[in-house]
Write a structure and sequence with these properties.
The complex is a heterodimer of chains A (335) and B (276).
Chain A lengths: L3 E10 L2 E11 L4 E5 L6 H9 L6 E6 L2 E2 L10 E4 L11 H11 L4 H14 L15 H13 L5 E5 L7 H18 L2 E6 L2 H7 L2 E6 L2 E6 L1 H6 L4 H6 L6 E4 L1 H4 L5 E4 L4 E4 L5 E10 L3 E7 L7 E6 L9 E6 L5 E3 L9
Parallel strand pairs in A: 3-8, 3-9, 6-7, 7-8
Antiparallel strand pairs in A: 1-2, 1-4, 4-5, 9-10, 11-12, 12-18, 13-17, 14-15, 14-17, 15-16
Helix pairs in contact in A: 2-3, 2-4
Chain B lengths: L6 H28 L4 H4 L14 H9 L2 H32 L5 H10 L9 H10 L6 H25 L3 H9 L4 H12 L1 H17 L2 H5 L8 H6 L9 H21 L1 H8 L6
Helix pairs in contact in B: 1-13, 3-13, 4-7, 4-10, 7-10, 8-9, 10-14
The chains are: A alpha+beta (335), B mainly alpha (276).
InterPro entries (chain B): BP-dep_ABC_trans_perm, MetI-like, MetI-like_sf
Keywords (chain B): Cell membrane, Membrane, Transmembrane, Transmembrane helix, Transport
GO biological process, one term (chain B): transmembrane transport
Chain lengths: 335, 276
C-alpha cells in the first residue's frame, strides 16, 4: 500500500512562500512524475513528502494515516537522491543493508534480501566494493538497491538520472520503469526533463512556482494542455505558440501547434518562412524557421530527411484539428 | 603549460626551507644537547657543541629527585581525558552547527573563538574560587574540565569545518533509511569524518599536553603534569640548566614522538577539504 495525500499543504522559507496551498493525491501503485523548470518547487514538494522538510501548514497522509508530524524514518518511504548519497565508507553490501540494520532485522534475513536486491540490479559481483570504485550507473543502482530492500510503501526519486551521461540515462530510465512494473509500488519521481516525465509516468504533475499547473497522464497533457505553460513545457521540440492576427483567425489570443503537426509542402502552404537551422537526424528533420510573420522562430518536424537547407524558403500547412487555442489568460479554450 | 621551476630556484628554496626548519628546531636541539652536559659545561662560554663529556647524570638526578612516571601519568590522564571529553561534547555541537544551522550559528562560532582572546590570567581568580569551592584544586578531574573548556572552541571549529565538507544528502539518506540521530552520528557522520576527527584529537592532545598556565596554577603535588615537572627545575635555588634541560627533554619526548609518527595524519587533517 502506498497512497499519498497532500491536503492544503504549504511551505514557506522565512517570509517566502514557495508552495502555496496545494492538494494532490498520489494513488497506490502509481508512477507519478513531478516536472517543471528548476526552482518550481518540485524537489521541495518531494522533500515535504519524505519528511526532510517540515510543512508550514496543511496535512500529509500516507495510507490514510496522518504523517505530517512523523520523522522521515517512520513514514515507510525510501528515497533515491540525485547525488546517490551512498555511504562512502561502507561496501556496497553494507550500503544496501543499512536500512535493514537500522530496522534491527536479523542478519540472515538481511543477507537474503541484500542478495536478492543485488541480483535484480546486477550488482552481485560488486557487493564487496566501495561506492568510490563504481561507475555512475552502478552507484545509482546501489542507491536503488538500498531503497528496494526496505520494501517501502513508496519510492521517492529526486532527479536520479541527472548525473548520468545520455546513454546511461536512457538505460536507467528503462530499468526504473521495469522495476515499477515488477514491484507495483508507488513511485514519485522528480525531474526537470519532460522526456523522462513523458516516458516513465502514469501521471504527470506539472509545477510552476509551487503551483500545480496540470495533473494528467502523459497523453492527456500532450493532447490537451490546460494552459500555455503546460503546452510549452510538455513535448519536444516544444510547441509553437503564435499570437496576433493568426491567433485571432481562430478566435483565440494564442494558438499552439506542435512541430510534428505542421506539414512541409512543396508550394502554396498557408505559412511560409526561411529555413534558419535544419537539424538532420535521419529519421526526422527539425527546421527552425524565421521570417514567418507568426513568431520569432517556428519549429517544424518533418518525417525523414527533407533536403531543405539554410536560407531556403519553406512552405507549411498546420493541421487544423491539431491547433490548440488559448485565451488572453493563457487558458485553454475548449474545441 | 606547467610552471617551469629552474634547478637554481629549487636549490634556493630547499636551502631556505632547511635554514628556517633548523632555526625553529635549534632550541629543542640545544635543550636535548644540554641535558647531556654537566652543569658547568652547560653554562660554558663559548658554548660547547659536541666537544664535552657526555653524561647521563642529569637524568639520574632528575629521576631520583622527582617521580617522572607520576608526572607523565598525570599528563596522559589530563591531556587524554580533556581531549576525549572535549570531542564527545564537540561532535554533537559541530553536527548541529554544520547541518542545522540557525541564523545565529556564525555568531556563536565567533563568540566561542573570542573566548580564546581573553587572557587566561583574567579569569584566574574566579576559576580558583570555583576550584576551592568544589574541592577541585590539585585534582586531575579539575584540570581535565578546565583544559577541555579552554580547547573546546578549537575542537568545535575544526570539527565544524570538517563536517561542512560532508554532503548533507548523505545524512538525509541515513534519516530516510531509518537511522535515529544517534545512528546517524555514530554510523555515518563519524566514520566519514575520521581523518578530521583524528587530527582534531591529535592537535587537542598536544595543546593540552603543553598547556602550562592552568596546570601550574591549579596543581601542587597530586595532579601535577609534566609542565609542573619542568617548572620545578627552574628553581629559586639557582640555575641548573643541565637538569632543567634533562627534565624538559623527558617532558617533551613523548609528545615529540607522538607528533613524529602522526605528522602525516596531522597534515592531512589540517588541510582536509582544502582541495576537492
Amino acid at each position: 500500500m502506498g497512497q499519498i495525500e497532500l491536503k492544503q499543504v504549504t511551505k514557506s522559507f522565512g517570509d517566502v512562500q514557495v508552495i502555496p496551498p496545494l492538494d494532490l493525491t498520489i494513488h497506490d501503485g502509481e508512477f507519478t512524475v513531478f516536472v517543471g523548470p528548476s526552482g518550481c518547487g518540485k524537489s521541495t514538494l518531494l522533500r515535504l513528502i519524505a519528511g526532510l522538510e517540515d510543512i508550514t501548514t496543511g496535512h500529509i497522509e500516507i495510507d490514510g494515516k496522518d504523517a505530517t508530524a512523523l520523522v522521515p524514518a517512520k513514514r515507510g518511504l525510501a528515497m533515491v537522491f540525485q547525488s546517490y548519497a551512498l555511504y562512502p565508507h561502507m561496501s556496497v553490501r553494507k550500503n544496501i543493508a543499512f536500512p535493514l540494520r537500522m530496522a534491527k532485522m536479523d542478519s540472515a534475513e538481511i543477507d537474503k534480501r541484500v542478495n536478492a536486491a543485488a541480483s535484480v540490479l546486477n550488482l552481485t559481483d560488486y557487493l564487496d566494493r566501495r561506492p568510490g570504485q563504481l561507475s555512475g550507473g552502478q552507484r545509482q543502482r546501489v542507491a536503488i538497491g538500498r531503497a528496494i530492500v526496505r520494501e517501502p510503501a513508496a519510492f521517492l526519486f529526486d532527479e536520479p538520472l541527472s548525473n548520468l551521461d545520455a546513454a546511461l540515462r536512457v538505460g536507467m530510465r528503462l530499468e526504473i520503469s521495469e522495476l515499477h512494473k515488477r514491484l507495483e509500488t508507488t513511485m514519485v519521481y522528480v525531474t526537470h526533463d519532460q522526456v523522462e516525465a513523458m516516458t516513465m509516468a502514469d501521471k504527470i504533475v506539472v509545477l510552476q512556482a509551487g503551483v500545480i499547473e496540470q495533473v494528467g497522464t502523459p497523453l492527456e497533457l500532450y493532447r490537451a494542455p490546460r494552459n500555455t505553460f503546460v503546452a510549452g513545457f510538455i513535448g519536444s521540440p516544444r510547441m509553437n505558440l503564435i499570437e496576433g492576427p493568426e491567433a485571432a483567425k481562430h478566435d483565440a489570443a494564442t494558438i499552439g501547434v506542435r512541430p510534428e503537426h505542421i506539414d512541409v509542402v512543396e508550394s502554396g502552404g498557408q505559412w511560409q518562412g526561411t529555413v534558419g537551422v535544419a537539424e538532420h537526424l535521419g529519421s526526422d528533420t527539425f527546421f527552425h524557421i524565421h521570417n514567418t510573420g507568426l513568431a520569432e522562430t517556428l519549429t517544424v518536424r518533418a518525417i525523414g530527411d527533407v533536403s531543405l537547407q539554410h536560407g531556403d524558403t519553406i512552405h507549411l500547412n498546420p493541421r487544423a484539428d491539431e491547433i490548440h487555442r488559448f485565451d488572453a489568460q493563457g487558458l485553454r479554450i475548449a474545441k | 603549460m606547467a610552471r617551469a621551476v629552474t634547478t637554481n630556484r629549487k636549490i634556493i628554496t630547499t636551502a631556505v626551507a632547511w635554514t628556517i626548519a633548523l632555526i625553529l628546531f635549534f632550541p629543542i636541539f640545544w635543550t636535548i644537547l644540554t641535558s647531556f652536559k654537566t652543569e658547568a659545561q652547560a653554562i660554558n662560554d663559548p658554548p660547547l657543541f659536541f666537544n664535552f663529556d657526555w653524561t647521563l647524570e642529569n637524568y639520574a638526578v632528575v629521576q631520583e629527585r622527582s617521580d617522572y612516571m607520576k608526572f607523565l601519568w598525570n599528563s596522559i590522564i589530563i591531556a587524554g581525558g580533556s581531549t576525549i571529553l572535549g570531542i564527545l561534547i564537540a561532535i554533537p555541537a559541530a553536527w548541529s552547527m554544520a547541518f542545522v544551522p540557525s541564523v545565529r550559528t556564525k555568531d556563536i562560532l565567533l563568540w566561542m573563538l573570542s573566548t580564546k582572546m581573553l587572557p587566561a590570567v583574567g579569569v584566574l581568580y574566579p576559576i580558583s574560587l570555583i576550584f576551592v569551592e568544589f574541592n577541585l584544586l590539585d585534582t586531575r578531574l579539575g584540570l581535565i574540565v578546565v583544559l577541555m573548556l579552554i580547547n573546546l572552541p578549537i575542537i568545535v571549529w575544526m570539527l565544524y569545518t570538517y563536517f561542512r565538507e560532508i554532503p548533507g544528502e548523505i545524512l538525509e539518506a541515513a534519516r530516510m533509511d531509518g537511522a535515529t540521530l544517534r545512528d546517524e552520528i555514530l554510523y555515518v557522520l563519524t566514520p566519514m569524518a575520521v581523518p578530521g576527527i583524528a587530527s582534531t584529537l591529535l592537535l587537542n592532545f598536544i595543546l593540552a599536553w603543553n598547556e602550562a598556565f592552568w596546570t601550574l596554577n591549579l596543581t601542587a603535588a597530586n595532579a601535577a603534569p609534566l609542565t609542573a615537572f619542568i617548572a620545578s627545575y627552574s628553581s629559586p635555588e639557582g640555575l641548573f640548566f643541565a637538569k632543567l634541560s634533562a627534565a624538559s627533554t623527558m617532558a617533551i619526548a613523548p609528545i615529540l614522538i607522538l607528533g613524529w609518527f602522526s605528522q602525516k595524519q596531522l597534515v592531512r587533517g589540517l588541510t582536509f577539504g582544502a582541495v576537492k
